[in-house]
Amino acid sequence: MPRTRLTPDALVSAAADLADEIGFDHLTLSALAKRFGVRDASLYTHLRGLADLQERVALRALGEWADALGAAIAGRSGHAALSAFADTYRSLATGRPGRYAATRHPVPPERLAASGEAARVVEVCYALLRGYDLSEPDATDAVRLLRSTLHGFSDLEATGGFTADRSLDTSWRRVVETLHHILTDWSKI
Amino acid sequence: MPRTRLTPDALVSAAADLADEIGFDHLTLSALAKRFGVRDASLYTHLRGLADLQERVALRALGEWADALGAAIAGRSGHAALSAFADTYRSLATGRPGRYAATRHPVPPERLAASGEAARVVEVCYALLRGYDLSEPDATDAVRLLRSTLHGFSDLEATGGFTADRSLDTSWRRVVETLHHILTDWSKI
DNA sequence: ACAGTTCTCCTAATGTCCCTAGGTTAAATC
DNA sequence: GATTTAACCTAGGGACATTAGGAGAACTGT
């Protein structure tokens, strides 16, 4: 039977899906090779090794992140944009756990900078803040606060860090409303 | 030469130190055994295996976390307590990266509940909030917001998520001041 | 069409690590 | 001092990552 030709792109896509299924830290070359009906050594024609694969998946996930968040805030501003942004962020984190973990995989700074993916995510954050009245350096601080809060909540939720007997959805809404308030009154605080 | 007798406790302590040196995800039974001049198989007398070690280190780190944060807020309240709490949190995260990563290692819920460590951390958070005027369910939401923000910032900082050319210390101070403001005016938001 | 080149995928082999099984010696108990 | 207990060891298997080198398919130029 004719085997589908391997390409780095197809491998990275399949690896990202695999990571969502079994967890980013269980992503393995053998498992990926098995999925393509190929020996693990064969992957080295297309990838430099496991570290390379992990970094590629990380960059891919970062790019998808930027796309989804960008789409969420397109045509919206202020509270509506923040709310859509935040909900998209959290649903990606919980719905695509492998990709989410991948976004936190450390990628060598040069490589991260070379692909523009990380910058795109930050760019979307700044776009979101356009609906609020912030200028530098407040905007940078605000972006950092925003990312910290959304990321921290998603991460703690994902790793089971929240144990209290109260709806996470409700707390999440409260967090988003609080962020809205902060961004609105930033200069007064 | 007389070999120091192994104990689970000594192993976990050494493992935590090792994790700080080489990263929690590079913590390995072989490396730990080597540090004690012993074969890896010998560790199985004291530990059930790698997963067991990782979970023990996680619980140990959580306990140390609770101790340090508790000490930071002892005798302080309100802004002073929050500031000390936050700074301790961040310095632990950056100064003890292996232990910090360990605190995020997923531990089976029963085991986590059995050791009281996770509850102690949450307890310290609630103690911190005593200086602010919050009652349930606001307190739970506030704890979640607080932990999310501090954790998110620390994690993004640790994984190189912040790239803008602005002092992280400055942004951190701003984040802490913002949290103080939110906690103070919680009911008004 | 065909000879030569290139590139994909393969087999084989090495090293590291987790883990189990079973033995040996040193410590602890009676 | 004899017996039991338990710490540590050697031996070995299985999963992965990785390298080296070979066979065959696909592409190139004539």
TrEMBL record, chains A, B:
Would the keyword Transcription regulation turn up in this protein's UniProt record? yes
Against PROSITE patterns, the record matches this protein to:
HTH_TETR_2 (PS50977)
This protein's source sits in the domain of life called: Bacteria
Name the UniProt key words of this record, in alphabetical order.
DNA-binding, Transcription, Transcription regulation
This protein's record includes keyword rRNA processing = no
Gene Ontology MF, one: DNA binding
DNA-binding region of this protein? 28-47
What are the residue boundaries of the HTH tetR-type domain, all occurrences included? 5-65
| Region forming the signal peptide | none
Q: What is this protein called?
A: Transcriptional regulator
